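Handout, section 4.2: multi-component inputs.
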Amino acid sequence: MTTERTTPAVLPSEYPEPLWMQAKAVLRARIASGEVSPGSRLPPERELCQMLAISRVTLRKALTTLVEEGVLRSAHGRGWYVTSAERKEWPNTLESFSETARRMGLLPTSRVLRCELGTSTYDEAEAFQMAPGTPLYRVDRVRMLNEVPIAVDESLVPADIAVGFDSVDFSTRSLYDVIAGSGFHLAQADTTIEARPADAELAGHLDIEVGTPVLDMRQIVRDGTQRPLLSSVIRYAGDRYRLRTSFSRSADA
Amino acid sequence: MTTERTTPAVLPSEYPEPLWMQAKAVLRARIASGEVSPGSRLPPERELCQMLAISRVTLRKALTTLVEEGVLRSAHGRGWYVTSAERKEWPNTLESFSETARRMGLLPTSRVLRCELGTSTYDEAEAFQMAPGTPLYRVDRVRMLNEVPIAVDESLVPADIAVGFDSVDFSTRSLYDVIAGSGFHLAQADTTIEARPADAELAGHLDIEVGTPVLDMRQIVRDGTQRPLLSSVIRYAGDRYRLRTSFSRSADA
DNA sequence: AAGTGGTCTAGACCACCCC
DNA sequence: GGGTGGTCTAGACCACTTA
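Output:
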């Protein structure tokens, strides 16, 4: 019954990757490769345990997280099934800047105002539920469509998530894509939206009059464990942008 | 090591409720009752195990699901902490005016400007995908919180859905509730949001200066068969209101 | 060094599904 | 009845935090 921490059996990696994550990666790879087709059944848990050389508890941790990501679903006395491939595009989200640009056939670019590691202020730390002074990566940009300034985006990312950001070109890359590409799962976004008059600095960046209406959107994006990944304030010139979304509601009103 | 399925130790229930759900309920109750205040630390896992008379694996299942629900967060090496209270009641659709009022403990009322049957203009008919001239019920209101004007709401409802509307008091009733009460299922809401300067009429209703930033939200609400039930334009005084929502995304990015 | 969460195991029994 | 997922346990070691 002793837990012998032998060399991980699933992958020949060095160390730090937990077994259940390795198992998850293997399963996901087999699904992606088409080895198990959408809608079909996986081998029984006890069989997968042998194949991956891990315990059932560990295997189930991997399977469960894959359910949360919409890859699998379980059926009590029947088995594990691969979710049919046609997964909808993010339902219930605001259309992102990049998506809007694509829909309208415009070219999204950015002028980077600031892109550096700094320390968190008290307010910022509170938003991230971390100690004040904890290092944060800061990316400030003017976002444009076909060279026309549309919005100013001020984003903050915890330093341990922003590894390698120094070599990323944020004038063309999407911050969401970069974070997601690092393996983080942007699961939830708490959002507030209000209308405000533009202050002098903002008016300068957007080339509008001071006091012009501006759409002020603030988001905190978290992963599945509620860990904050990104905090952003985006201020859109009122007459140059329109947020779009489509909500579904399960019940009541 | 044999699992003796004794009578559940956590709660004196009959049977079917899993132990980890019972544990979850107990923990949630202690938090709700203020026994453990927001931001404070829970007892160590091994201690909770004894208190609840369950194994650590089971306890952690309960704790983990509470994290996903935004009630707790874990800090490696330090402990489990209760999430600050405000992070809990985020709606997964745009929070409605009535919901906002309830959350903030304010009284929502309306001053009805217009409430009558009319015919649709070209633009309105287009929104509803029906022929111009088709009868529409029109409800225009100034919406208030504790007597302070917050927004102007102009809503349109197809006449066949608005049966009996003449006898409804819209100064206190929610349009959503009335429609839902007639047996219609408000399933989906397509929304656009932008910032605009207030025109003279709007400024008069809201008691603000002309040109002040206003949040302009337009929605078309449909039932499960995509049939339009309601079209509304709501314009909020920029410094008196803030839209709130929390988006979830099922998978990747 | 002590305390705390994170991961992992082997084995057991239960509830559900299908033959 | 046999197969499959769902729940549960006791015990072990690792990694991080704090002192």
